[in-house]
TrEMBL record:
GO biological process, one term: methylation
Keywords assigned by UniProt, alphabetized: Methyltransferase, Transferase
Ranges where the Methyltransferase domain occurs: 148-239
PANTHER family from the UniProt entry: 2-METHOXY-6-POLYPRENYL-1,4-BENZOQUINOL METHYLASE, MITOCHONDRIAL, METHYLTRANSFERASE
Identification of the protein by name: S-adenosyl-L-methionine-dependent methyltransferase
Amino acid sequence: MGKSNSKSIQSSPSLSSISSVTSIPRLLKTHRQNKSSSSSALTYFSSSSSTQLSLNSPNSLNSHLEIMSQYPSSLNENLLNSDDFDICQYIGDRKYCKSGIEDVNYVYPVDDDEVDRCQMQHFLMKHIWEGNFSAPVEELLSSYDTKILDIGCGSGAWILEMATEYPRPQFVGIDIVPLYPSEIHPTNVKFRQANVLTGLPFEDETFDFVYMRFMTFAFTINDWERAIKEALRVTKKGGYVEIMETDFRWYNEGPFDKTSIGKFLQTQNMDLIASPLITKYLNKFSNSEIKHEERKIAIGEWGGKLGKLYRELYGWASRNLRKVITDSGINDTNWDHTVEICLKQLNELRAYDEIHRFWIVKSLETEEE
């Protein structure tokens, strides 16, 4: 059985200066529509050097947006509005995975607005962690023989950045809905529509590095076991598996938060606190030591510019859950107002949550079946 080695990071990196954080969704949309938009719209500080970076800096948010705009089909309106997705349907003006399909549990929309939210989430997580991964895979990333899999790749933000920064390995991204670029992407990237819960279309021990994140709202409690077992199956012995998730458990939350946010998960059979499940099944299917890091992130202006951005991301994500709120029997008439009250209370009480990264080396010994 694996052993857990937990490293707790008590304070997260902070953004020291942001000239505007009130319209990140609009900034992403504007950048997508007009790459020549003003570079003075947003600035922020590097968490490691405290040096101000403009949007034109190669280490800035704008550089990430610029990378993504090179692959327009990841946000292609025709692609997103295609009727070719057998598992999708429109409800009003939003697109979702159809309900009632076995092993398809994703509760968020699958459209432009949600893709933009995921882009923001990607950039923010990269800043918080000061990088796109924690496993010691730098040597692997310098080899032409390395194969890397991104499970639940979404729009492809992580894999497109990684493949651009590390042009030698071969990258594969899979997701149940093809929001990723279908044609225009780096030559060392391939995307496939696939569902980890029904079995990945790869032979045993295919990949040197398997990466998975942001699956809390795609997996039921029982799905984690199958997903982690399948991720380990396609990983080479001696290869790496890394999983990143946020525990949506708010420290210092208020009474309104306790009764308002997360109720729907009871009907969805999901668990907001994924880290114990990840530890449990990595232990079950691996003989290797589990490496664990965490970040505690402030929610709201009390945490400075980073906390303000994180609050905005929380609000955006909560508003995009409107459909599942209604499906769960909760009246959504005042949902936006409810979200704002919750976020206000989280800020006033100086609340925060935890983000986790787990990684292991797949044992050379035979894993438990």
